[in-house]
């Protein structure tokens, strides 16, 4: 590790990885909510055309890519908002037009070669110089500040665009702001993971966070944590394994997602095994049902043919008297805690709406 930190270009690479690991998931969380997971790919294709213009004209490719991506972001939202064509068609035009323009323009460059675009397509974080790092830091700071300040309104629009419009929010302006933030994030990340893989770093950490978080805020924290660990870990692994940094980062993020999906699935299965439902109920339990009621933690169980049944979200749970009487001495009901945990995700939307809604 000391060998890695002793190298200037690796220290710069690690700083760039942290910036991308924070910025990409913060923007991606709103794209996931709006089911626009692939828009980052479209922005990446347009940014490729901007890179080609920079290579052809001798200007900084990062800046020309930024101009192209932001212009495309505004255009796509205006077209989609006015309804002259569907968002899917506009996104497809942006996809193919951007990459086609990039290939044609780069072919006209006197110094054109595959290496000119490879670093931008697949990432080459170790080639980022001091100037690139300052540009990335400035752009990442803009993304972080804008995302944090606009978070309640972006959440409201992503959660229910029609309700947000009826509430008087500037929906079109917020949609354009999110598209511009996506474009800036693509440009910030293109030297780290590459234009063809940037969408993965915006989406996969958030997919993992949805499995781990119980609320919108918690999911954002998990997404940023996964993004940072995947980015920094991918850079370190790529240094020692001598693999491309972009692909290594994305594979590590996918590994975290698979691990989270497997572990949460096993936990859910274990809880489902303990969360037993009563087989049949031909009538409703209640004060007038004629069955004895037994206080059990924060609710009542009804004794029915030797079984204890507890009402829970439209069905009845089968509670084990012996197990719960033993658990009661420790201050609670094991199954009821599990029921509340299982219900946590079902109430997640209500909780996140309270947390994310603008005041």
TrEMBL record:
Name of the protein: Zinc transport system permease protein
Location in or out of the cell: Cell membrane; Membrane
Family: Belongs to the ABC-3 integral membrane protein family.
Keyword field contains Cell membrane: no
Region of interest called Disordered, as start-end residue ranges on this chain: 271-359
Biased segments, Basic and acidic residues type: 279-288, 296-305, 311-359
The entry's keywords: Membrane, Transmembrane, Transmembrane helix, Transport
CDD domains: TM_ABC_iron-siderophores_like (cd06550)
Domain of life where this protein originates: Bacteria
GO cellular component: ATP-binding cassette (ABC) transporter complex
Taxonomic lineage: Bacteria, Bacillati, Actinomycetota, Actinomycetes, Micrococcales
GO biological process annotation, one example: transmembrane transport
Keyword Transport applies: yes
InterPro entries linked to this entry: ABC_BtuC-like (IPR037294), ABC_TroCD (IPR001626)
Membrane topology value: Multi-pass membrane protein
Membrane-spanning parts: 12-32, 44-77, 89-107, 133-154, 174-201, 222-241, 247-268
């Amino acid at each position: 590790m000391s060998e890695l930190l002793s190298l200037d270009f690796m220290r710069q690479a690690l700083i760039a990885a942290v910036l991308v690991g924070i910025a990409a998931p913060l923007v991606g969380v709103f794209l996931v909510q709006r089911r626009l997971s692939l828009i980052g790919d479209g922005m990446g294709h347009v940014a490729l055309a901007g890179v080609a213009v920079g290579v052809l004209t001798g200007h900084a490719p990062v800046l020309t890519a930024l101009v192209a991506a932001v212009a495309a972001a505004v255009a796509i939202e205006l077209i989609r908002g006015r309804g002259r064509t569907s968002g899917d068609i506009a996104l497809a035009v942006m996809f193919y037009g951007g990459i086609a323009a990039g290939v044609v323009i780069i072919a006209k460059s006197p110094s054109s070669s595959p290496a000119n675009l490879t670093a931008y397509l697949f990432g080459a974080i170790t080639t980022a110089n001091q100037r690139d790092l300052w540009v990335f830091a400035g752009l990442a700071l803009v993304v972080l500040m804008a995302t944090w300040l606009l978070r309640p309104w972006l959440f409201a629009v992503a959660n229910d665009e029609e309700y947000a419009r009826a509430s008087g929010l500037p929906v079109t302006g917020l949609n354009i702001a999110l598209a511009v933030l996506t474009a800036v994030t693509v440009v910030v990340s293109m030297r780290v993971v590459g234009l063809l893989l940037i969408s993965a770093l915006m989406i996969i950490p958030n997919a993992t966070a949805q499995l781990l978080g119980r609320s919108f805020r918690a999911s954002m924290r998990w997404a940023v944590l996964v993004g940072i660990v995947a980015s920094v870990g991918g850079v370190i692994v790529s240094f020692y394994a001598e693999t491309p940094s972009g692909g290594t980062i994305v594979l590590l993020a996918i590994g975290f997602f698979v691990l989270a999906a497997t572990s949460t699935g096993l936990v859910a299965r274990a809880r489902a095994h303990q969360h037993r439902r009563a087989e049949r109920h031909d009538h409703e339990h209640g004060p007038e049902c004629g069955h004895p009621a037994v206080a059990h933690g924060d609710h009542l169980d009804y004794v029915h043919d030797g079984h204890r049944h507890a009402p829970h979200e439209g069905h009845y749970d089968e509670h084990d008297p012996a197990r719960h009487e033993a658990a009661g001495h420790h201050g609670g009901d094991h199954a009821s805690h599990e029921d509340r945990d299982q219900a946590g995700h079902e109430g997640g939307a209500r909780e996140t709406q309270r947390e994310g809604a603008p005041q």
